Amino acid sequence: MKEMTGLERCRAVLNNDLPDRVPVVPQTFMFAAETAGFRIGDMNKNGKMMADSHIISQDKYGYDGCVIDVDDASLAEACGAKVIFDNPNEPALVDEHNPLVNDLRQFKDMELPDPLKDGRLPAWLEATDRLVSEIGNRVFIMGRSDQGPFDLLCLLRGTQNFMMELITEDPKIIWDALDWCREANLRFAKAQKDAGAHATSIGDSYAGPNLISPDMYRQFAWEHELTLCKQVQDYGIPWSLHICGNTNEILGDMASTGAKILEVDWQVDMKKASDIVAGRAVLMGNIDPSDPLVYGTPEGVDLKAKQIIEATEGKNLFLSSGCAMGRHTPEANMRAMINAAKKYSN
């Protein structure tokens, strides 16, 4: 088989065809910024710097896909939330102590964000456009649409407040608020497609078992993810679902959303995940971004990558970090992940 480009490799996996090897799609926005010599606090408002960081990093290491992301606060900010930019070397955070929304009934009167003009979303879209124009003929570009419905509602209402309201509030009121958040994300996802992204993705980690029960996930989060997935993929772009933490108990539900890609964290058993998902989606993961990627050795990264590839038989897999890679990940450890995909794919 002739050597494929990263884009060809990723598309082959998404189409359930055989690639020349397992593609590597690391979640590198902090690592890429460090590689390019940028501070997150400067890059997160500048679409050209976002794009340049990925171009420089991908050119240096040769991985197959870039994931456009800068923090978990951008969509919430575009909705009107107050965002804290205290540390120029760390991602921005939503100020949940001063939530935008004090009552879930407020959503019915709120204007939805416009990704072409509100907050920093235009910078994300500029980054997508630049990346697609400069390297998108050979590298897979995933343009995230930031936080999913459940996460976005947590950020706009305040997570602690919303956790209490899951118990005390009228489920219909919760449903309507989540529906508003779904529509806000849908607009951003469509804009990523219009900017040329090859895939888009949401983070909905507050809906995972680390915070709420699987039953509550199914009651409150799942159907909004299902609807969002269908709407986005009907628009013509593959959709990816990222839920941090140990999602073993809800992986089947996540696959049932229809997502083309499931991003799984390091706590997930990849053999069980592969059996549960059973080819319905590509699994993206799941090397621990802390240890071995930051604090471990190249040999430790190599071993973990080997275990992942063996557990999945190298099928329906994007080898990746389980979550965002730390900016101080050693160069040798990044190279070990990429080399392992080449070494163990056959």
Automatic annotation (TrEMBL):
Domain of life of the organism encoding this protein: Bacteria
InterPro entries (alphabetical): Methanogen_methyltrans, UROD/MetE-like_sf, Uroporphyrinogen_deCOase
Uroporphyrinogen decarboxylase (URO-D) domain span: 8-344
Signal peptide: none
Stretches assigned to coiled coil: none
GO biological process, alphabetically ordered: porphyrin-containing compound biosynthetic process
Xref: CDD domains: URO-D_like
Any one GO molecular-function label of the UniProt entry: uroporphyrinogen decarboxylase activity
Name of the protein in question: Uroporphyrinogen decarboxylase
Source organism per UniProt: Oceanispirochaeta crateris
